[in-house]
Amino acid sequence: MPKFKPVLLARVGKPDSALLSTYQRDGGYEALKKALSMPPDDVINVVKESGLRGRGGAGFPTGVKWTFLPKGHPGPIYLAVNADESEPGTFNNRILMEEDPHQILEGIAISCHAIRANTAYIYLRYEYGKSYRVLERAIEECYAAGIFGGNVLGTGFRLDVYLHRGAAAYICGEETGLIESLEGKRAWPRIKPPFPAIEGLFRKPTIVNNIETMACVTHILGRGAAWFKSIGVPADPANPRDAGSYGPKLYCLSGHVNRPGCYELPLGVTARELIEEHGGGVPHGRNVKAVVPGGISMGFLAAHELDIPLDFNGPGKAGCLGLGTAAVIVIDDATSMVDVLYNCCRFFSHESCGQCTPCREGTAWMTKILHRIRSGQGELRDLDLLLEVAGSMGIIPGTTICGLSDGAAWPVKNALQKFRPEFEAYIRERRSTLKPAEMWSAH
Amino acid sequence: MPTVYINDKPVEIGASERLNCIQAAQRAGVEIPHYCWHPALSVVASCRMCLVEIGDRKPDGTIAMQPKLFPGCQTPVKDGTVVITNSTKVRDAQKATLEYLLLNHPLDCPVCDQAGECYLQDYSYKYGRGYSRLQEPKNIKPDKDHIGEQITLFTDRCIMCTRCVRFTREISGTGELQVIHRGTHEEIDIFPGEPCNNKLAGNVVDLCPVGALCSKDFLYKQRVWWLKSKPSVCPGCSTGCSITIDQNDDVIYRLRPRFNPQAQGHFMCDDGRFGWKYVGSEQRLKSPAARGEGRLLGSTWEEVLPLLKAALTDAIRRAPKRFAAVISPWATVEEAYLLAKWLKAASPEVTLAMGPVRTEGEDDHYPKTVTGAPPAQVRFTIRAEKAPNRRGVELVLQHFQGEVLNFETFAGQLRQGQFDGLYLLNADPQQRFADDFVAACRKLRLLIVHDLLESPLSEQAHFVLAGGAWAEKDGTFVNHNGLAQAIFRTVRGPEDARPDGRIVWELTGRTGLFRAATVRQEVAGEIPAFAPLILGDLGDHGVSLGAASAVRETPALQPA
């Protein structure tokens, strides 16, 4: 495969890349002009044709989601852009927002035109201070340049964009949790139906899209659906439910690699290629033990599964939950999977919003069990108990409102399925990797 | 008619009914356990106790089941919906949810007020597993005694169903309660310095399916399995909330609201909930008395009633126009009827007057709004009229006298010296008669005070009749809306106090025992407005008197 020339990251690292002037010099907002000259439904069709799937984690086809809006709705319709990037290991949105905010804002304007929304909210996680400042300035520039406001580029289209800073919670990345939080409430995900496209923000039709999806929309309009579709992995004709994995994707490589970072590659690159060619291999001459394919909620790939393509279907074939956010975390062979899993469970127990009983209690219980195992007090039957708890929570069995607990359960299921001998040996040998400070840690 | 299949049992529902699985299953006699769902509150589907399998029965008889579980509270049923509540999959989910709920629950049932009426106990017994697999320490959360004047929170017993939070947001509109923290560390709490003291706050204790929110008034007073319950009606205001009285050994321990769609719905206010304390008051009249010539002539019913009857007959025969009876809006329809009928039979010229109808402020509507504007949809009303049966008594008076003489007008006539004798039936424990009224009564030649509590009037009366509180008698109350509801004798009065109906029954010389249902049928037969009560039994939800109960407008009623 010839070396892929970055599109989304093309301007990253250039001087003053966040400024409107440089963006326009590089051909910015031409796609918006083009979109504004088209009827909204045609824009939706272009996005639909491109096969763009949401970059936030679930991979739902963006254009199809847009068509779920009620036809002929008198409005208002809202666009909520999810910048609550909280999945551990994920930092692609941050790079886009800090380095090339206008690319996102252009995508937002195009999307708003397409879905007939006059108001867009960007829900930004609190920790992204620089993103906040950069985006705030970029939005001001757009208002000053007549790109946002009452008369977008002289077409009479009205668009207001608000930047909302969350209070730092993983659950605000769930679309209905995000909506509740935007409304000023506790971010407890809503029960569905109704889905946000029918009844979302302030009880009005709302589309929730990821930052990277917005950036992709800009390029799809700029370069055409055919260009986008020429990149990535085509749909499997044998599987009618496969929508294909098209376009470039920002892979966030971290963990035990020599060159961690955000790499823009066509969808379908393998973990091995990512680690060895782009990441420069594992340091200290160690080997890969496990790879998280797309944020820890997606589970683990074992060392022999590294040749699975990281597209929307690949990780699922290896028993993972999906591609997720394409945050690839490499774990080397000097690391204990018991510690890794404990860390995962602790994260989800901390971030569970506490609404549904199985998630609220299950995530905390799994953490307590793993803490006990790590203090040398584990029993072999604990592993079956962990599996049972993990199996009883999530929207897949139907026991929770949102997918957080599926994500919490998946690393446990994967780790115990793929690395069970290691866990058994750990328990049998009464090993303990607890740090002294952790002995007293509260759950 | 749409048909729903609950565990293969077909149940027909109304064509326009919107039921969820829990309600549809109730029709089929199948219990779907649930915690967070309550018919009066919004659906959150968060406890995950009501998970069921859902399917669709096609016209050709085939059934397509959904692969995953659904919360029964959130899932509406329609024609052909199949609900399975007893499969292994559902049972396993119920077991798992209960095990989760009990993970951090202190299991302190032996010292918990809720024990015996606790859904955590009941469901664990029916649907749970016998033991917990938790080996780790439980979370410990601080108890919150400061959460309200009447309520206390045992935080670690809480299962986070958020019924209480939704109640304060949706029904009372006061929004004092909230969830703080996150995940397994979540707690119910108030906003700092803003305790939950609204007038509906006591309802959160009833709503709490476990022993987390407890009533300070009831706390540690009784184990609930000792309590004996009877349905009744709250006498606190003219809303006439259906309630249940819980008593043991003739001591009332608490009142609880009883669902009645025709009266108030699911709830009751704290004024009514805690307003029964006078029943056990030391100030209660404990025996009858007949006084004359400066001495006590009798203090048993056997002595007093013949003397009273003679005195009454004498007074009415001598000057019927100068004899009056005042009947309180706290009296039952039966008492008012028996007394009014007997007096009017003695002489049609006897004056009948309505007792004082206490009012406090204005009708108090809920939910409260932030702006103080009236709520768009009223969910609960505490009425200004603090009497349970004004309409009932008015209808009786109207029947026997043609018009209803209100108390203020009557008191004016009394002060002018138009009367020599007065039978004052006052069952309102909070009524304080004005000094000039008491002074006017002092001049009467015959004063009969039939009351609950000692008062300046009872001290100067020639005859004192120790009556019964509402919980001590059988009868009928008609609420503001013309809904007739039955009350029942739940506790016995102190010492020699008797239910008012029995006193009047014996005074009027009727034979046999006073039986409210029989008198009610008699009333229904005689007074057209009460015709709908002809069966005598008013059922759980009461009987509406309908248009027939419209009372002719009387002058504005003012407290005396």
Automatic annotation (TrEMBL), chain A:
Cross-referenced SUPFAM superfamilies: Nqo1 FMN-binding domain-like, Nqo1 middle domain-like, Nqo1C-terminal domain-like
Signal peptide (UniProt feature, chain positions): none
A GO molecular-function descriptor: 4 iron, 4 sulfur cluster binding
InterPro entries: NADH-UbQ_OxRdtase_51kDa_CS, Nuo51_FMN-bd, Nuo51_FMN-bd_sf, Nuop51_4Fe4S-bd, Nuop51_4Fe4S-bd_sf, Soluble_ligand-bd
Pfam families assigned: Complex1_51K, NADH_4Fe-4S, SLBB
Keywords recorded for this protein, A-Z: 4Fe-4S, Iron, Iron-sulfur, Metal-binding
Keyword Flavoprotein: no
Domain NADH-ubiquinone oxidoreductase 51kDa subunit iron-sulphur binding: 338-383
Family: Belongs to the complex I 51 kDa subunit family.
NCBIfam families: PRK13596.1
Protein name: NADH-quinone oxidoreductase subunit NuoF
Organism: Schlesneria paludicola
Phylogenetic placement of the source organism: Bacteria, Pseudomonadati, Planctomycetota, Planctomycetia, Planctomycetales
From TrEMBL, chain B:
4Fe-4S keyword on record: yes
UniProt cofactor(s): [4Fe-4S] cluster; [2Fe-2S] cluster
Residue ranges of every copy of the 4Fe-4S Mo/W bis-MGD-type domain listed in the record: 227-283
Pfam families the UniProt entry points to: Fer2_4 (PF13510), Fer4_Nqo3 (PF22117), Molybdop_Fe4S4 (PF04879), Molybdopterin (PF00384), NADH-G_4Fe-4S_3 (PF10588)
Localization per record: Membrane
Domain 4Fe-4S His(Cys)3-ligated-type: 89-128
GO function terms (MF aspect): 2 iron, 2 sulfur cluster binding; 4 iron, 4 sulfur cluster binding; metal ion binding; NADH dehydrogenase (ubiquinone) activity; oxidoreductase activity; quinone binding
InterPro entries: 2Fe-2S_ferredoxin-like_sf, 2Fe-2S_ferredoxin-type, Mopterin_OxRdtase, Mopterin_OxRdtase_4Fe-4S_dom, NADH_UbQ_OxRdtase_75kDa_su_CS, NADH_UbQ_OxRdtase_ferredoxin, NADH_UbQ_OxRdtase_Gsu_4Fe4S-bd, Prok_molybdopt-oxidoreductase
Major localisation: membrane
Keyword Cell inner membrane annotated: no
A single GO cellular-component term on record: membrane
GO BP annotations listed: ATP synthesis coupled electron transport
Keyword terms: 2Fe-2S, 4Fe-4S, Iron, Iron-sulfur, Membrane, Metal-binding, NAD, Quinone, Translocase
Family: Belongs to the complex I 75 kDa subunit family.
Identification of the protein by name: 2Fe-2S iron-sulfur cluster binding domain-containing protein
